[in-house]
Write a structure and sequence with these properties.
The complex is a heterodimer. Chain A is an alpha/beta fold. Chain A contains 14 helices and 15 strands. In chain A, a hairpin with a 4-residue loop joins strand 14 and strand 15. Chain A starts with 9 loop residues before the first helix and ends in a 12-residue tail after the last helix. By secondary structure, chain B is mostly helical. The longest helix of chain B is centred in the last third of the chain and has 22 residues. Chain B starts with a helix and ends with a helix. At the A-B interface, helix 6, helix 11 and helix 14 of A face helix 3, helix 5, helix 7, helix 9 and helix 11 of B.
Chain lengths: 436, 659
């Protein structure tokens, strides 16, 4: 059933008229409305599972003049209403619609072009697949897949329905990290032999299998617990899960390796131009986190997992360091500028970042990159294949730690070589009815 | 209860107890399979233990686990967990068990079993699944359609195609998904004609845009030789969705025929559509498109011209270079800028030559543009021209040319740069030469060997040149450089002396610290003492050393500090050293009437750093007392407010740590 397009309030209309001045290069039919909307007017967006992190993403998205956010879907009433309050305050109206069931949301809101999905990790891939199957483009927070099979399904679905997908690996659209990648790409570092990827300095690769104590199930309208669990094995309700205490539980999380590796492995693989493949070897390290694990790509370049507990490599979070025959660069969150072996390179900072933006037509705004690509149908910087391959590296590193042995991986077949147990970890049966 | 039953319960309980420790792990050992199976069979085992057992059997379960797990498939509470264990087990008996369950389980468990059959791609299940396509429960029918898609055989496809005309609106998308999956599987298996038939059917359905567009793309791609003909047909479509799907397909198709189809159709299309085709020509990498793209770059709608310039750059055909140069003079500024960008990023010697020629011309604006492009292109081949310009070019061009010699060249250019240093007079040229020398030295494989060459020239250089060389030595570092800078402290020339002091102050490593301290102690000149102390304390903040060493330096400086200005320097330094001991050195100044405000500011700045840092939880309790003191004594309301806020934070974190 098609829903009537929401009308804009005067305030929202005035706010959006500037969007009409955008380059008129995109017919509206590209938005799935078959020519019903004038070119370059706006992108109608809905939310899925917007909590704390999602609110940051939403606040990043709302100022974009060609976005109109119209509805949000969440199994938790409190979160739904919080998003509505934020959006309605911004637009000066009461129009943001609320949904608790993702199936109803996607099936009925055919007016929505794209979704912002910022659920917990367990729902990232499933929500993306359901949304893309429903014809929506998507911004999906990281880590964007719980298993290798989920990542494959995201790639297949995006390709099948020609959807634009952006994983929330936002450092790929930040100047400092882009500069580091460009130094590597342009040969400033010489022949790069080693890259170092930060993993979260808390928690461990081995995650919890216990349950939090059961609490009385709230009314479904308050918290739809079955929907909250989604494809994961059932367990009794405890309100702490809904407040973020799902982290570090095996069913819901991707460990200290995935927590930051979802960012840093992607950074390294993109910098190396190896984002369409995965390492072929994983060396087990006898500690609880994977700190120091050496993974090797087919071309011999090594990516080392670094916990960096004593801040010897970085003095910020989510760091990467690239080392070559001619020098090195290191960057992490909170740096005013990258650390480089040759200070003279910094003179080229603006030039390199500007040239990157011009060459790739990607701005230094991750959200803007998605919105531009929704219009141009170009591939985003954190596209499904890049997400899947870097998350495959995360999963393989975790599996290596769980099985406590070295492993070889065939990136073409996407399977571990001569390791049946490892291969069983590539997927997890999804709980009905949340099956793709 | 009979003795034998009690015995049985005890045995099962024992087995369960043995299994419990393994249940908390992600991977059980292979020898634990029997224990895990026993948990499944134990009527008294908790739901949690059974779920854990299933999770572990997913990794280690063999043939023995299949029947006990299959027995749980109809159990509403454990059906999913049973599938969780069965789905990844490669034993064919799992398929039999799942097929068998199809006829027995209902509702949610049935949906789950259907899903697992799909994941396992069990072709023998197609007959049973076909019957479920018409199931009255739409969730079951949809699951069956998707599962048959995963199986992806011709038989599955045929069943879905047969069912499609009667399918409800609510179920249609899942049936389309099933057919997409079948077509993909058939195409991969070489049955491309069947796949094409499916895509054609999907593209013509009255279905959502994503189905039609996706089917058009796939129909073109799967046709192979027949693809270009269909491509042309859709390139003419008035429906932008189908048009863009066709263009997207073209990105993935090799061959001249595709390029020709795109170029032929492009001419007759609106600007929007032309842009999409132009971008696609770039991503296809077919250089046959270059002449047409160059034509498009020279005239027409501006957005199309800009897209054409970007695309022809991507294709990297040298014939484009003269057009870029020509368009640098275009009347439209955006076109000229796009041409600059193309020249900046276009690979190869032809563009290098064009940029060198631009630089060699007599027009100053073009020369400056040439310099910018040389830098952006990282054009090492431009170094000879740059060196020539360093001696002769326009004064606006010269400094940037000199700087670029350092950026683009290396240690090989050092002799020429040192000769240049002796000859330059203008401050801008001198600064540029100094920067180029510093860059060339720091880029060298052995920077200190290059520094030795600089040291060798110090004695003959003029004062301004000596000062420049000293600053370069500070950037390079090393014991020989330090020795030379130390010697220059005693120079007769004030400019050289000042440069030497500043060079020491900018030293990156702690080995310069004793010199600065000694100079501060020795001088009677108040201004000089402040300068030495500032440099010394700068080193305590910026130098590469352990925190303990930084603190030690501050302690040593403290002994020399008398004037308020010097105290401010120390407090500023201490606020940057992330250590509770630094706080201890700040606190006494809270009692110094002239320093109370600065000390309060330094204390809250340091506390903010410490509470954001990694060891915050451990340090929080230690910060409570100092912050209380600041809050009580500060006369500055902003400092007091910050202190109180930090105090609350430190108390909370401190209490949490104690818990």
């Amino acid at each position: 059933m098609s829903e009537k397009k929401p009308t804009l309030s005067r305030r929202a209309f005035l706010g959006h008229t500037a969007a009409l001045a955008l380059p008129a290069i995109v017919p509206a039919s590209v938005f799935g409305r078959d020519g019903a909307v004038p070119p370059s007017e706006r992108i109608v967006v809905g939310g899925i599972g917007i909590g704390n992190r999602g609110t940051s993403d939403l606040q990043w998205m709302l100022p974009e003049r060609d976005v109109q956010f119209v509805a949000t879907c969440d199994p938790q009433k409190q979160r739904r209403e919080k998003v509505k309050a934020l959006v309605d305050t911004r637009y000066g109206n009461n129009d943001c619609k609320l949904y608790s069931d993702i199936r109803e949301f996607l099936a009925t809101r055919t007016d929505i072009d794209a979704v912002l999905s910022t659920t917990g990790d367990r729902w990232h891939a499933l929500a993306a697949i359901l949304a893309m199957r429903a014809g929506k483009d998507i911004y999906s927070e990281k880590p964007s897949a719980m298993t290798i099979a989920e990542g494959q399904a995201v790639v297949e679905t995006a390709r099948r329905y020609r959807r634009i997908y952006q994983s929330g690996i936002q450092r790929l659209s930040e100047g400092n990290f882009t500069f580091a990648n460009e130094l590597l790409r342009l040969g400033y570092l010489g022949q790069v032999h080693t890259v170092r990827a930060h993993i979260a300095p808390w928690d461990a690769a081995e995650m919890r299998h216990d349950w939090l104590p059961a609490e009385p199930l709230p009314p479904k309208d308050e918290v739809d617990w079955d929907a909250w669990l989604g494809p994961c094995p059932w367990r009794p309700y405890n309100s702490a899960y809904c407040r973020g205490s799902w982290r570090n539980h095996y069913d819901f999380h991707t460990s200290c390796i995935g927590e930051w590796g979802a960012h840093t492995f992607a950074q390294c693989q993109v910098a190396l131009g190896l984002w369409e493949t995965s390492p072929v070897e994983y060396k087990y390290v006898n500690n609880d986190s994977g700190d120091g694990m050496v993974t090797t790509f087919a071309n011999g370049v090594k990516m080392v997992l670094e916990r960096d507990m004593n801040a010897k490599i970085w003095h910020g979070s989510c760091g990467v360091r690239y080392e070559g025959t001619e020098g090195w660069v290191a960057i992490a969150d909170g740096y005013s500028k990258p650390e480089v072996s040759n200070p003279a390179w910094m003179a080229d900072f603006k030039k390199l970042v500007d040239d990157y933006c011009a060459r790739t037509q990607r701005p230094m705004s991750h959200m803007r990159n998605l919105l531009d690509c929704i219009k141009s149908r170009r591939q985003t910087v954190a596209n499904p294949v890049m997400m899947h391959r870097s998350m495959s590296t995360v999963h393989a590193a975790n599996i290596c730690m769980w099985l406590k042995r070295d492993m070889k991986y065939d990136p073409v077949k996407e399977e571990f070589v001569n390791d049946a147990e490892a291969n069983r970890f590539r997927s997890r049966a999804m709980r009905e009815p949340w099956i793709i | 209860m009979s003795k034998s039953r009690i015995h049985l319960i005890l045995v099962v309980a024992l087995l369960s107890a043995l299994a419990v420790p393994t249940l908390a792990q992600t991977v059980a050992s292979k020898g634990d399979e029997a224990k895990l199976i026993a948990v499944l069979k134990n009527a008294d085992a908790s739901r949690k233990d059974k779920i854990d057992a299933c999770r572990q059997l997913a990794i280690i379960g063999g043939k023995d686990s299949i029947a006990p797990l299959a027995a749980l498939l109809g159990n509403e509470e454990l059906s999913h967990n049973a599938r969780y264990a069965l789905e990844p087990n490669p034993d064919p008996a799992v398929d039999e068990a799942l097929r068998d369950a199809l006829g027995k389980v209902q509702g949610g468990p049935l949906v789950g079993v259907i899903g697992s059959i799909g994941v396992r791609r069990d072709a023998k299940a197609v007959g049973a699944l076909t019957k479920l396509l018409n199931n009255s429960d739409p969730v079951v029918a949809r699951a069956a359609a998707r599962a048959m898609g995963k199986i992806g055989t011709a038989e599955a496809a045929k069943a879905l195609q047969t069912a499609l005309p009667q399918v409800s609106d609510a179920n249609r998308l899942d049936f389309c998904e099933g057919l997409f999956r079948c077509a993909e599987s058939l195409a991969t298996g070489g049955q491309k004609n069947q796949a094409v038939a499916i895509y054609d059917e999907l593209s013509q359905l009255d279905s959502p845009h994503q189905v039609r567009g996706g089917a058009v793309r796939a129909a073109i791609l799967t046709r192979e030789r027949g693809g270009p003909k269909l491509l042309r047909q859709y390139l003419q479509s008035k429906d932008y969705i189908l048009f863009s799907a066709a263009v997207q397909a073209a990105q993935e198709m090799p061959g001249d025929r595709v390029t020709k189809a795109l170029l032929d159709e492009m001419k007759n299309l609106p600007a929007d559509n032309q842009i999409l085709i132009i971008q696609t020509l770039g991503r296809r990498g077919d250089k046959a498109a270059v002449p047409a793209l160059l034509d498009a770059a020279k005239s027409g709608a501006k957005p199309v011209r800009i897209a054409a310039l970007a695309t022809v750059t991507e294709l990297a055909d040298a014939s484009a270079v003269p057009v870029f140069v020509q368009l640098l003079d275009d009347n439209d500024r955006e076109i000229a800028q796009a041409a600059q960008m193309s020249l900046a990023t276009f690979p190869g010697p032809e563009a290098d030559a064009a940029v060198t020629e631009l630089f060699a011309g007599g027009n100053t604006d073009k020369q400056r543009l040439g310099l910018d492009l040389m830098g952006r292109r990282r054009m090492a081949s431009g170094v000879p021209a740059l060196l020539k310009a360093a001696h002769s070019a326009d004064s606006k061009v010269r400094p940037e040319a000199i700087r670029l010699v350092g950026d683009l060249g290396g240690a090989d250019q050092l002799p020429a740069l040192l000769v240049l240093l002796d000859s330059v007079d203008r401050p801008q040229d001198l600064a540029a030469t100094e920067q180029a020398i510093a860059t060339a030295c720091t880029k060298a494989k052995e920077p200190q060997a290059q520094a030795d060459k600089l040291i060798g020239r110090l004695s003959q250089a003029k004062p301004a040149q000596q000062a420049a060389l000293l600053r370069v030595l500070a950037a390079v570092g090393g014991p020989n450089s330090l020795k030379a800078v130390r010697a220059a402290i005693d120079s007769d020339n004030a400019e050289v002396r000042s440069a030497a002091v500043r060079a020491l102050g900018n030293w990156r490593t702690a080995d310069a610290a004793p010199d600065l301290l000694a100079l501060a102690k020795a001088t009677n000149d108040v201004t000089a003492k402040t300068l030495f102390l500032r440099s010394y304390l700068n080193l305590a903040v910026r130098g590469e050393m352990a925190t303990e060493q930084r603190l030690q330096m501050c302690e040593q400086a403290k002994g020399l500090i008398q004037r308020d200005e010097e105290k401010r320097l120390l407090l500023g330094t201490l606020s940057n050293i992330e250590s509770p001991e630094a706080m201890g050195l700040i606190l006494p100044y809270l009692s110094d009437a002239g320093m109370q405000q600065e000390a309060g500011m330094a204390a809250v700045t340091l506390a903010e750093r410490l509470l954001k840092g990694r060891g915050a939880a451990k340090l929080a309790a230690q910060l409570v007392e100092p912050l209380q003191k600041v809050a009580q004594t500060s006369t500055n309301s902003e400092v007091a407010r910050r202190a109180n806020a930090l105090l609350e934070q430190a108390q909370k974190r401190g209490n949490r740590k104690q818990r």
